[in-house]
Design brief:
Quinone Oxidoreductase, Chain A, domain 1, about 220 residues, 2 domains, alpha/beta
Amino acid sequence: MVVTDARLRGQGVSDEQAAALPVAAVAALGALELLAVAPGETLLVLGAAGAVGGYAVQMAVARGARVVASVRGSADASEARRLGAAEVHDVGSGGVARALRGAGADAVLDIVNGRDASRGDAEFLTPGGRLVSTIFGADVAWFAERRITAYNIIGHPTPFGGTPNPRQTPQGLAELARMLATGTITARIRSTARLDGAAAVLAGLRDGSLRGKAVIRVR
């Protein structure tokens, strides 16, 4: 549950939108800044239909990047296409590796792989490529040996280090509000429920039948 942020509500953003934006959208915004995604570059988003991934796809497309999405299942594939991904590949088919092997991506946003599995991201990246993990899965030194700049983006300081989110600021929230107002991003709210309906909403999130954001009103 995310508490509605007053800094967003004061900029023409509804209570529901303000509750759905901050954590995931700020993570996506900060990740794209670290990746320095430029127009014409190829960005691979692993987990493109999720909360952070969905915002990242929209933001990267608005920056003029070509987005390749990695998802799981046909419903997530449809969602990634709706958000603007140029190519969508189901991880179950191995399509991502086949599509990008040799050509490579300029940058990867990895929202799904842990430390061991994330090393496979090097297969998709060109020399000098960039990688951001949102779940502390990147072995920064290992990637550096392969001429890949990797970051583990964090929202708050941890004993394990990591790179602070550069957009977790009031200015970052203001930028999100502008993106929402101009249609650059959508809040992706799929369900709004009162507190007594929270159990059903949470069940939908767990079983995958509800994609996007869910907002629970406590009063």
